[in-house]
Amino acid sequence: MNLSLLSRYAFFVACILFSLIGLVLHQIEWLWPFTLAASALSLLGVLDLTQTRHAVRRNYPVLGNIRYLVEAIRPEIRQYLLEADGEQLPFSRDQRSLVYARAKNTQADKPFGTLLDVYGSGFEFISHSIRPAPRSDPAGFRVQIGGPQCAQPYSASVFNISAMSFGALSANAIRALNQGASRGGFYHDTGEGSISPYHLEHGGDLVWELGSGYFGCRDEQGHFDPERFARQAQNPQVKMIEIKLSQGAKPGHGGILPKHKVTPEIAATRGVPLGQDCVSPSSHSAFSTPLEMMAFIARLRELSGGKPVGFKFCLGHPWEFMAIAKAMLESGILPDFIVVDGKEGGTGAAPLEFTDHIGVPLREGLLFVHNTLVGLNLRDKIKLGASGKIISAFDIASVLAIGADWANSARGFMFAVGCIQSQSCHTNRCPTGVATQDPLRQRALVVPDKAERVYHFHRNTLHALSEMLAAAGLTHPEQLEAHHLVRRVSDTEIRLFSQLHVFLQPGELLGSDIKAEFYGRMWRMAQAGSFAPATHHA
């Protein structure tokens, strides 16, 4: 027991003794810095013994603080010293390095062969052609969005900036993203935090995301205000309106911007009070049934002057999306587009259980939505976007091959403007000025430089996509199909995506003979008048 006490307090006692010796020998000048350091550590030890929050510090005065110091810098130590190149936490060093290289317009090629285990289950690749096609100009990789009920269709790039709000991101980050989008001819999704002055400075195309908080178009009670909406939606820079039903980071949870990040500027932009957490409810107040949702879509389209209106969601209960699809058929009102967000998406902070265990991953959600629309003969009238951990040209190709018309990326463009994956987005202490409202911290983000990086990341990624398509014998992303991509399913077997997944036939859900049993069961459970399942049909 005496040895235990000696070991626990030895360093603390040594600091006190050194301080006393230094005071006695104060005439020795070179000893003073060490005496001051020992005195400071002695004072820290006294504070450790008297504080009541941390048992380790009470039992190990002075030395116990090392635990908390190392714990505080653990993410940085892991990222820079311990993390393997292919270890995804949540993005690997290889993925981040690819974005940084393309954003800086430097060489992103790798020598000496792949580091991936090509014989490991889950390895994926795109098959190439013996007769490659000429490489197409990526400037032509665009998709026309706007169905028969839309008066102002929009030509979008196949790769765009996914939803990230001003408030979650700094003013300088928003400026850089929008300036890069303006130069590159792709769109910038505002996120649900409304349209800030910084979204408008550089004239980049905007998709205005309308969340359940109706920020930028809400009344005093937080309900939808049609007049305020119309004023903003008719801005020529706003190209499309996107209703956010849920997001991959925390589906079914709503959103929170902590009060310490709600500045007077953010409060004015969103129309919320200062000094309070800015809360997005988990569901919309403007509609409560699929049929009411279709009516809301029609209303937004009219108020915006006929611009494309769609919605974004992370798939949850399958029958709920099919209920929306039934409401489309019953009402005759169609969204112009749907963006499917995967549970692997996540620029927003969320409870661990939501991050890890709620929501359908992107590919399964995308395939289900694509198949449902095909089965109802609606797929040619509604365009599909996809978002969720998309970084590279292959990531884009993998979602286009199973049904998407275009892809969005959030964290990829965050890396392009300087994010280092410190995972401190919710603390207001982002070290690179990307996700903070601290004026001094965001000053480090130099807008012209980072806007160039946003532009180059987009351009170089589409250049890589063009080269992949040419190798596969294709000239445009719309030609990608499931049989072009391959996945290894065991040590000795590979399968085409077209063999791995179920694909419905056009109109299959409209007849009595639905061969895909799961789709048939979900279709019978869905009802246009309610999101609840019609369980007696299950």
From TrEMBL:
<keyword id="KW-0812">Transmembrane</keyword>
<protein>
    <submittedName>
        <fullName>Ferredoxin-dependent glutamate synthase</fullName>
        <ecNumber>1.4.7.1</ecNumber>
    </submittedName>
</protein>
<dbReference type="GO" id="GO:0016041">
    <property type="term" value="F:glutamate synthase (ferredoxin) activity"/>
</dbReference>
<dbReference type="Pfam" id="PF01645">
    <property type="entry name" value="Glu_synthase"/>
</dbReference>
<dbReference type="InterPro" id="IPR002932">
    <property type="entry name" value="Glu_synthdom"/>
</dbReference>
<keyword id="KW-1133">Transmembrane helix</keyword>
<dbReference type="InterPro" id="IPR013785">
    <property type="entry name" value="Aldolase_TIM"/>
</dbReference>
<dbReference type="InterPro" id="IPR027283">
    <property type="entry name" value="YerD"/>
</dbReference>
<dbReference type="GO" id="GO:0006537">
    <property type="term" value="P:glutamate biosynthetic process"/>
</dbReference>
<keyword id="KW-0472">Membrane</keyword>
<keyword id="KW-0560">Oxidoreductase</keyword>
<dbReference type="InterPro" id="IPR024188">
    <property type="entry name" value="GltB"/>
</dbReference>
<comment type="similarity">
    <text>Belongs to the glutamate synthase family.</text>
</comment>
<feature type="transmembrane region" description="Helical">
    <location>
        <begin position="7"/>
        <end position="25"/>
    </location>
</feature>
<feature type="domain" description="Glutamate synthase">
    <location>
        <begin position="157"/>
        <end position="474"/>
    </location>
</feature>
